[in-house]
Design a protein that fits this description.
Blueprint: E1 4-14, E2 35-45, E3 51-58, H1 64-73, E4 79-83, H2 90-101, E5 122-124, H3 125-129, H4 140-147, H5 160-165, H6 169-193, H7 199-221, H8 230-245
Parallel strand pairs: 1-4, 4-5
Antiparallel strand pairs: 1-2, 2-3
C-alpha cells in the first residue's frame, strides 16, 4: 500500500550561471544545471488516493531557498513523489538548487528513491508509461488528451520566463497547478491500470478533488489566508478550476 503521495511539478527560469551554457541552436532547452526553481506546485494524496492538500511554493512570495526548504520537509522515506518527467528534470533541479543553498535532501541517501522500476520513492509517471524508455517519448499533453483532460491550454513552459519578467505570478502559479492536477489524474488512472488503485478509489479520488476545490474557494472568498500568501492560494484554486472548466470532468470517472 502506498502510504502517501506528493504530486510535484516545477516551473523554472534560467539561473545565475546560465550564461555558461553555449549551444549552436539557442532554441535548445537548457540543461537542468542552468535552471532555478521559480515555483513548485504540489498536491498531497492520502493512502486512499484522496486529495488532502495542494499549494504552490515560491512565486514572488518566498525566496527560492525558503521554497526548497519547505518542499523537502514535505518528503520522507514513506512519501511517494510523483512527477511527469521528474527523473530528467524536476528532481535534478531540486538536487542542484538544494546543493547550492545547503538544503539537505535526506530521502536521497536511500538508493531506492532513485530506483525507476519501483513504486516507492520517486515515481516518474512519464517513464513508467513509456515502459522505461522502450516506447517513444510521451508528452503530458498527449497522455492527458487520451483520457479526456485538456493538456496545455494558453500557456506552456517556454512562456514562464517572460511571464515572470512581467510579474504575472498568479498566471504562472495557475499554469503550474494545471500540470499538477493533470499529473494527479493520470497517476490515479495509471494506478488503476497496474492494480495499485481500485475503481472505487479512482472515482473517490476525483470526487475528493472537487470537494477540495470547494473548500479552497470558500477559504479564499472569506479572506481566511495569510495576506502575503494570497497569490499562491488564489492561483492554486484558479489552476484546479481551469481543469474543470476545460474538460468533461464526469467522463473521467470509471463506470
Amino acid at each position: 500500500m502506498i502510504k502517501n503521495c506528493l504530486i510535484l511539478d516545477l516551473e523554472t527560469i534560467p539561473n545565475e550561471i546560465s550564461s555558461l551554457w553555449e549551444s549552436e541552436n539557442k532554441r535548445d532547452f537548457q540543461p537542468t544545471i542552468f535552471h532555478e526553481m521559480l515555483c513548485a506546485g504540489w498536491m498531497r494524496l492520502s493512502n486512499e488516493f484522496k486529495v488532502e492538500a495542494a499549494g504552490i511554493l515560491g512565486l514572488n512570495e518566498m525566496s527560492e531557498k525558503e521554497a526548497l526548504s519547505d518542499l523537502v520537509k514535505m518528503i520522507d522515506k514513506d512519501t511517494l513523489v510523483v512527477t511527469w518527467s521528474g527523473r530528467r528534470f524536476d528532481l535534478p533541479v531540486v538536487s542542484y538548487r538544494c546543493m547550492k543553498y545547503g538544503v539537505t535532501t535526506t530521502w536521497d541517501k536511500d538508493g531506492d528513491f532513485r530506483n525507476r522500476f519501483r513504486t516507492s520513492g520517486h515515481f516518474d509517471l512519464q517513464d513508467h508509461m513509456m515502459h522505461h524508455g522502450a516506447a517513444e517519448r510521451l508528452k503530458l499533453d498527449h497522455a492527458a488528451a487520451l483520457i479526456g483532460l485538456p493538456g496545455k491550454m494558453e500557456t506552456s513552459g517556454s512562456d514562464v520566463s517572460s511571464m515572470a519578467a512581467k510579474n504575472r505570478w498568479g498566471d504562472i502559479g495557475s499554469y503550474c497547478m494545471t500540470d499538477v492536477v493533470q499529473t494527479m489524474v493520470l497517476f490515479i488512472r495509471y494506478s488503476y491500470l497496474i492494480g495499485l488503485a481500485s475503481r472505487d478509489e479512482v472515482n473517490e479520488s476525483l470526487n475528493s478533488l472537487e470537494e477540495y476545490l470547494s473548500r479552497l474557494a470558500s477559504s479564499n472568498s472569506s479572506g481566511d489566508y495569510i495576506h502575503n500568501r494570497r497569490i499562491s492560494s488564489l492561483s492554486t484554486e484558479g489552476g484546479i478550476r481551469k481543469i474543470f472548466d476545460n474538460c468533461d470532468w464526469p467522463s473521467l470517472f470509471l463506470e
